[in-house]
Amino acid sequence: MPELPEVETVRRTLEPAIGARISSAWCSGLGLHMGRKPPLRKLRALVGATITGLRRHGKYLLLDTDRPQSILAHLGMTGRLRIVPASEPRVPHTHVVIGLGARDLRYIDARRFGQFDVVERATESAHPALAELGPDPITDGLDPEALHALARTKRTTVKAFILDQGVIAGVGNIYASEALWRAQLRPTLRTHKLTAKTTKALIAAIQEVLRRAIENNGTSLRDFVDADGSAGSNWEYLWVYDRLDKPCPRCKTSIRRAVHQGRATYYCPTCQAA
Ligand SMILES: [Zn+2]
Fold this sequence. Notes:
Layout: H1 4-13, E1 24-27, H2 40-44, E2 51-57, E3 60-65, E4 69-74, E5 79-85, E6 94-100, E7 103-109, E8 115-120, H3 128-131, H4 144-153, H5 158-163, H6 173-182, H7 196-215, E9 256-260, E10 263-267
Antiparallel strand pairs: 1-6, 2-3, 3-4, 4-8, 5-7, 6-7, 9-10
The structure holds zinc ion.
Residues 248, 250-251, 253, 268, 270-271 line the site of zinc ion.
């Protein structure tokens, strides 16, 4: 599943769409996440509008137009957004096509867990998809005091805490494992045990692993390719994720794997003892 760095990689590869005028809109008619269909009528109402910017909050992308509306997109598990020549045949599982003159912006999603909507920019923070999200760790930053105070109110593990999209938007399973290794924190540590100092270290680690992954164009997962169709190169830079029994890059202890709440966690039993 794409996480924040992969979505940021997609955002950057879509930047050539800025300045383009929307010339048409088409939808497959099939429902995406929760069976919700992309809003064809609202997309068609944007024909004639110009794309003025591309923003990201967590794993959500927002395509701003010169009208009061923006197009909201979430890639779900297997979604891809690509800019291709309009003459290129549509591949299977294409669900949204936004014509940009000689080019198309196409949304392809085999498993259909993605989201597509048109939002009013003035009230976008109240949109159900965005209202529940915590701050974006890269574009908004994270406030150590606020995060520490929030951690003390939760009865959960530090891994579940940083995966909670209402706490921090965009961190998923891969980068949660990576950040906890970097901060030298045990994934099962209870959040009320976080101190002001370890909270700061955790924030620094989250931002470092995300920035590093963005620099490497996201992690290449089975279904993830960026908007150009090219795979990311961060996979070889991961410290612990999917490295069972391989040596910890810091202390050479074998990396362990555990399953918490149905999700694999990779950690070093020696240097993540805190
Ligand atoms: Zn270690």
